[in-house]
# Entry
Amino acid sequence: MFICDDYNNYTFSILEQSYNFAYPTSLCDDKVYYSIAENFLNLFTEKGSQYQSRPLYVFLPFAIHSLFKNFSFLQEIGFIFELSFLISQFLISVFTLNILVNILKKYYEIKNIDIFSISLIYFMNPVQQFVMFTTSNGTLSFTMLVLTIYFLEKYLNDKNIISICFLIGILFLANRSFIVSLIVFLIIRLFTKKINSRSLLESFIGFIVFWIPIYIYRLIIRVNGFEIADTNVVDYGQFIWVSKYFNSGIGFWASKFILSKDNFDLRLRTNWDSKDEWYCQSIPENFICYFEDLRLSSVYLFTPLILIILNILFSKKLDKSLYKNFIITSFITMFFWSFIGWFPPLRFGLYSYGNIIALLLIFYFSSFNNFYIKITYLLTLLFGLLNISHWNNPNLIEITYLDNISFVFLIVYLYLLFKNYRERNNEKF
# Structure
């Protein structure tokens, strides 16, 4: 699994018959996450403070672990922590897929077999494939995209947006990428409505309300005698490095409002670790590093990308409203991740660009009416992604017989797609 990840072996017995299985483990993260699942207060001590910024995410496995730790069977296997996080990831996935299907039902006829297929595409996404069985909260990067589009579909025209901004602020405590949801929602709402002093004031109040859950959370930490920790900012300088460009004006005061006093004082640091090749914390270096990540992600996701290109060229166009929301959300998402300033190979490219491709694959699948196109499309993806290597693999591309099968189905898919394209055009004339 490379870099941090490895496999542990487990044994359990049923009716005097022993069974063995291997399960992934992270040498970098599991120890910390497991300590929080065992005792939630460790989130505010040295044991687990590095993940203090995501309390809502770690609370779910903590609650599940509190339930399962009383089962002697699981204790004997030594699998309680792993199972707690696996169930958490599964619940997040079920929630995400339910929201996604409800969005799609507004535009397309979605049958039970389509729901199964959509779920399959979702789990074939490399982010879901490899994060599903780990402690990482990377699964929420896809959830963020889906919920952003859902908020636009359902709440964009609501008179009062305070509650939705507050809700997004709560979600920020699960994964910080949810700030993208706020930005997208407020920007599209501003441009959908007439821009005037009232709409600007409304957006400003919504932005302020977004931060209320975060500040309440920090206040609770301080009141209980704990220290606020922010590893992403302090140790890696993620996003905060941008504030060094703002020594006056609105950028300066926005930094002062958003950041804690300690983090605000850090903003003038020019770099965190200039010797680390993963750091890109100057403009335009950050964009260069991010686009290099996207280039490698495109190579890594060759099969899905080819399908997307073919769909754009020959498929029936997606619903205009859905496509508009998707494009704006995708653009702002990638723009957001380009400022993280720390680019371990592919990871954040897949959290943004990779998830965007996966979501677009699902949108196109849902739009198809032809059964044979659907099945060849699905089989192309299945065989193309089933044996994909982990993104930390130095040998990023490893061609197997499954890829060859995928290529055969791709040819069939291209034929069916082009045939359908010609039939549609002939009908027009």
Observations:
- Strands lie at 5-14, 17-26.
- The radius of gyration is 23 Å.
- The longest strand covers residues 5-14.
- The chain is about 65% helix and 5% strand.
